Amino acid sequence: MTVASDKYCALAHTLDMGEGALRVAVKDCIDIQGTVSACGSAALRSSPPAQKNAAVVDALLARDCTIIGKANMHELAYGMTGVNAAFGTPINPKWPDRIPGGSSSGSAVAVAADLCDFSVGSDTGGSVRQPAICCGVYGIKPSFGRVSRDGCHPAHSSLDCIGVFARSIAMIETGMETIDPSFTRVSLKKPLRVARIDCSAAPEIQTVIDRHFGAEPVIPLPQMSAAFEAGMTLIGIEAISAYGTFLEQGDDLGTDVRARLEHAAKIPPKAFLDAQKTRLQFTKEVDMALTQFDVLLCPALPIIPPTLLEAKDPATVLPLTKFLRPFNLSGHPAIVLPFTAGPQALPAGLQLIGRKGEDAFLCAAAHKIASILTEAQRETTP
């Protein structure tokens, strides 16, 4: 299979692996036998090649897939911009002046640029869903633990999920069927009970959501902000556990990742206990809400993704996962649906959250809600 020209810097390595009809890109923190899993870091560039495939790679090759390459990423999956000085920053195909998002930047760009049919990334705090919206494609974070992380880096995580990017919900479902044999498509048998989470985004984003979903009931999740902070705490603790020794190595780490690791190294032990307490409280809140409703809805991002220039200020980047990260903490499946907002038609999106283990039902709900968004955007586009 011939791989299309990668003028967008989406791929860290090109491959032609497998004989299937579906083209797939795989994030560079996922092992592929014979290739180095550099995780976007110069500190790992000279690591030995992987001895075997990650479980998800074997699943892809066992189904109708050809792996076209390992996708670029934000260094050590520890950043939200996708900017990478060591391996190159993937170019957002639709909005080239804006960040591609992170950390699964190359996976999102590969799909948006039509280099592949779907791609595989990882999501520890929004790392599939945020770049999906930045690049105008769909992205799913499955229920925690649903898809095997064997052969993924870092090896241990209480937050990370292997997820899928695609240009349609139908292809998201194909991707999920491929990486998870237990995933079986379903269709809606009765009216969908939807509730909006009590939170709001920038006016140009909120206007779209209110226009089309303003009649849906609003429910509070009082622990959502605390869950965001708890997720930040846990990812910091787990990142320093996996990569803390890199702080002792010269200049191999990017400036932003070094700063984040140095900050993580100072997290006090009590913060871990508080984060776990918040995890239990927030998970209970979400579970309770989902006994009354089938799907919870909220903005995917609170703001329009910043330009590459704006993203040099960390303060413009931190809010991007405000509504995404909490559901890594709780472990619920979440899918994002892209739309454009404002007179310049800039990237924005909607997030849907479902019950744990009901990922296929969440996709069925996404079909219905995406069709509302698509028709609405068609009607409002000049």
UniProtKB/TrEMBL annotation:
Pfam families: Amidase. GO terms for molecular function: catalytic activity. Gene3D superfamilies: Amidase signature (AS) domain. SUPFAM superfamilies: Amidase signature (AS) enzymes. Residues 24-180, 252-362 form the Amidase domain. PROSITE patterns: AMIDASES. This is Amidase.
